[in-house]
Sequence to fold (352 residues):
Amino acid sequence: MSDRKLSLGLFMPNCSNMPSISTANVVADQWTFEHNKQLALMAEAAGFNYLFPVSRWRGFGGETNFLGTSLETLTWATGILAATQRINVFSTVHVPLFHPFVVAKMGATLAHMSGNRWGLNVVSGWSEREFGMMGVPLEEHQRRYEKTGAFIEILQNLWHAERQPFNHDSEWYRVRDGEASPVPDKPPEIANAGSSADGRNLTARLCDWAFVSTPSIEAVGDVVSDIRTRAAQYGRKVKTAIFPFVVMGESKQAAESTLEQIIAAKDDVATKNWLHDLTAGSGSFDTFTENMLASSGGGVHVLGTADAIADQLEAAFAAGVDAVMLTFPRYMEGLQTFNNDVLPLLKQRGVV
Ligand SMILES: Cc1cc2nc3c(=O)[nH]c(=O)nc-3n(C[C@H](O)[C@H](O)[C@H](O)COP(=O)(O)O)c2cc1C
Fold:
């Protein structure tokens, strides 16, 4: 029998109004550190493996100003790691805004502080609202990922003593006799959430995790096998995580009705701004409907009774998914109900 298990994670509400671009069934101010810390402790106590934040520099306008208030994720991770003991905590950095030496040093520090519980999601950026505000140019899509590749190569050299000193010459960075000490005892896991072929190829070549967004659980199998095939071309293995939007109810109808309320109260302005930036900046979410983005920020919908939710997570696991970073309409309530009602089912079935 395989000892493969599904890792559980939370896609954390370190930004305001997560995860729905709506005024119904969200807790707008749940971004506070204290709230994040309580969720982290609850998730850790329940045996979750990962906490994963969102990195944003500006909101998307409208009534909600979706994600407009946010905690920066390297400093956020420092506090969360200090408050917890076992759970792994990611940070997310935008490549155009950080020098890889700075991130390598911060990462090595976090790895040493936490007993190697820190990981990094490297994002290339897509929102002209954010980058335009800062006067930082958003490169053309393919070039963005080329730069991200160079960034990760430098990080990895700085996290391996045996690769130092090193030189690096690319259009993006020039390094001479590069070194950094301490290196982490174990290289931190690197994730990328790119959806395009450029993004997936980069993930296949250099990352440990592909974080993906799929329109349905049925679509997960194809994405997993695509990522595995691309990774195999580099002789590598890459794990896949999805981020389900979990809406629980006493019945399927009750869960659907919660979802309908969220969609009925969607913030049209913020949704259109988000969609505009995503389409202009990435083009990878063309198959997602506006309602899907508004309700879950692009997370795959997992709706119904506890049993139905366990079924859908089990199906994703069977399709090859290695981790789920869960989101809930109201995180505290949602996590509590998940832990009470769904987790025992997943344990019984040997999924987690
Ligand atoms: C699970 C997940 C998490 C993401 N987190 C962030 C984030 O915190 N900040 C950000 O700017 N983009 C984030 N993204 C966007 C991706 O980095 C990427 O730009 C997007 O999926 C479009 O893919 P593409 O660039 O390959 O077209 C995330 C995407 C996913 C699926």
